[in-house]
């Protein structure tokens, strides 16, 4: 596919790397002396999770789940179901759910409820991007790299029709595609 045009670069590779190091330091400090389980949501958060994991100084395990979003019978968005579950349990573990972006909050809230029922010792959220202007359901974001405006963005895991995930920077597209195309 012909890659979409960029309107502007929101965060450069250097800015992203620096911010991930800062957030990793925050997490490592808070969890010093403990093991961590990072849980990534396929596929968007994979790029952020691996970059974050490399900067953590506490012992880390990783696991992944996949979700699929769908509209309900009335056509309202925000319904989410598990398409691939975790490989291992999280009972008694200190868990950080790693997200590419928290937007309306529906996905994150669903995942939190799903994970909380499995007896983790603690459960936190770490997101690369946080777009609070579009929040519909409140979720407790413990760590965020960047707040972003209400524009569709791609790169560093975020896709436009499954492309652009491998970009090293995060960009706003031009012309702006429909949200979540
Ligand atoms: P939420 O349930 O509305 O919070 O949606 C979160 C999911 O929507 C993310 O994990 C992304 O897959 C997708 N998404 C939301 N905004 C964007 C964007 O600007 N670019 C690419 N994907 C997005
Ligand atoms: Mg997507």
Protein described:
- With 181 residues, the protein is of the alpha/beta class.
- The chain is 22% helix and 33% strand.
- The protein is built from three helices and nine strands.
- The protein has helices at residues 13-30, 46-55, 106-116; strands at 6-11, 36-42, 60-70, 79-84, 94-102, 122-130, 143-147, 153-154, 170-173.
- Strands 4-3-2-5-6-7 form a six-stranded mixed β-sheet, with helices on both faces. The protein has a three-stranded antiparallel β-sheet with strand order 1-9-8.
- β5 (94-102), α3 and β6 form a beta-alpha-beta unit.
- α1 crosses α2 (46-55).
- The radius of gyration is 16 Å and the shape is globular.
- It binds inosinic acid (IMP) and magnesium ion (MG).
Total number of β-strand segments? 9
Low-confidence spans: pLDDT under 50, at least 5 residues?
Answer: none
Percent strand: 25-35%
SS-based class: alpha/beta
Which key features would you list for this structure?
alpha/beta, three-stranded antiparallel sheet, binds inosinic acid, six-stranded mixed sheet, 33% strand, binds magnesium ion, 3 helices, 181 residues, single chain
Give the topology, please.
Elements: E1 6-11, H1 13-30, E2 36-42, H2 46-55, E3 60-70, E4 79-84, E5 94-102, H3 106-116, E6 122-130, E7 143-147, E8 153-154, E9 170-173
Parallel strand pairs: 2-3, 2-5, 5-6, 6-7
Antiparallel strand pairs: 1-9, 3-4, 8-9
Magnesium ion binds at residues 44, 159.
């Amino acid at each position: 596919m012909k890659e979409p045009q960029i309107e502007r670069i929101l965060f450069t590779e250097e800015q992203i790397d620096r911010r991930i190091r800062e957030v990793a330091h925050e997490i490592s400090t808070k969890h010093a002396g403990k093991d961590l389980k990072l849980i990534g949501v396929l596929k968007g958060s994979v790029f952020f999770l691996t970059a974050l994991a490399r900067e953590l100084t506490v012992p880390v395990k990783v696991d992944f789940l996949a979700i699929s979003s769908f509209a309900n019978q009335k056509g309202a968005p925000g319904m989410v179901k598990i398409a691939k579950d975790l490989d291992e349990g999280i009972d008694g573990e200190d868990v950080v759910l790693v997200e590419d972006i928290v937007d309306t909050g529906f996905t994150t809230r669903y995942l939190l409820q799903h994970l909380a029922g499995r007896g983790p010792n603690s459960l936190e959220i770490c997101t690369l991007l946080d777009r609070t202007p579009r929040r519909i359901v409140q979720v407790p974001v413990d760590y965020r790299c960047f707040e972003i405006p209400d524009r569709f963005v791609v790169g560093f895991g975020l896709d436009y029709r499954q492309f652009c995930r491998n970009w090293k920077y995060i960009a706003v597209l031009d012309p702006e595609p429909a949200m979540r195309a």
